[in-house]
Amino acid sequence: MGEMSMGAAVVCVGAAVWLMGGRQCGARRARLLLAGSGVVGSGLPSWERVVGELRRLRGRLRAEWWAFGAGLVLAVVGASVIPLVVGAAGVPVLRRVRLAREARRVREKLGDAVIGLCGALAGEVRSGRQPGEALLRAARDSGGLGDAQGAVVAAARFGGDVPGALMAAARQQGAEGLSGLSACWRVAVDQGAGLAAGLDRLDAALRAQRDQRSDLRAQLAGARATAVMLAALPVLGLLLGTAMGADPLHVLLHTGAGLGCLVIGGLLEAAGMWWAARIVRRAEAA
């Protein structure tokens, strides 16, 4: 226990020294060489500089690496390598969760851009512009075509297959509404129907669908919060046991019964979180 604590302290001191002085040694050396008769500081970084370095370090570290840090702290406190292994195993899981959340934000942003594109295109057509020119202006202002904007713009500018380009762009996650725009374009241009009226109906339908998803997500927020709270109860139990002097970390990490309880509890915790997430995903998909 003493050796692990001493090792962790040495690592922390080394990291602090590197943050405070390692990156600034070159700059200090240059100031010393070029200062001339000027007064040069002692070379010790100010607290503002230390705080800035720590903030930059936190910005570079993704959220999933805090699991590894928590495992390292628990490994030092509990004098066991098990929390470190669990924390390292949690890094890819949390990374997957973070990437899924970021992908969902990208899809929602693209979906909002598609709605804006439909509204802008309807306004341009209603103002008297030709469909091709109107699409060019609306795409430039809204950016609702995503990665396929170049192909769609080229098709509209040079008389290509605009509905086909829109259908190809609709394959992007979040841009499914472009398939409706492709259908409206095909009907309006090929059969002479009113494009603005069709775009208005498409815009209303996409907005209603977005509002329905937002309402459903708000209704499921309570279920998510309940699942997270239940998942955090074991941590609260460990804190209460430590406050009462029961030393639950020693029992869990250094006794056979404690290891068995830790494995079974961890499996049940993971199964419960997976089941709750599955229920929420099925509700959103429905």
Written description of the protein model:
By secondary structure, this protein is mainly α. It has a domain at 111-209. Helix content is 81%, strand content 0%. The longest helix has 49 residues, at 195-243. The model is unreliable at 1-11 and 16-44 (pLDDT under 50). This is Membrane protein. InterPro entries: T2SS_GspF_dom. It comes from Streptomyces brasiliensis.
Apparent shape: elongated
Distinct helical segment count: 12
- Which stretches are low in confidence, meaning pLDDT under 50 for 5 or more residues running? 1-11, 16-44
| Helix content range | over 70%
The first-to-last residue Cα distance is: 53 Å
Q: Radius of gyration over alpha carbons?
A: 29 Å
| Number of separate strands | 0
Tell me which oligomeric state these chains represent: single chain
Helix-and-strand structural type = mainly alpha
Give the mean pLDDT.
78
Largest β sheet strand count, sense and barrel closure: none
- Please state roughly what percent of the residues sit in beta strands, choosing from under 5%, 5-15%, 15-25%, 25-35%, 35-45% or over 45%: under 5%
**What letter string, H or E per element, gives the SSE order?**
HHHHHHHHHHHH
Domain Type II secretion system protein GspF: 119-239
InterPro entries: T2SS_GspF_dom
Protein name: Membrane protein
Coiled coil: 199-226
How does the SSE layout of this entry go?
Layout: H1 2-22, H2 25-34, H3 47-60, H4 65-78, H5 82-126, H6 131-142, H7 149-157, H8 162-169, H9 178-191, H10 195-243, H11 248-254, H12 256-285
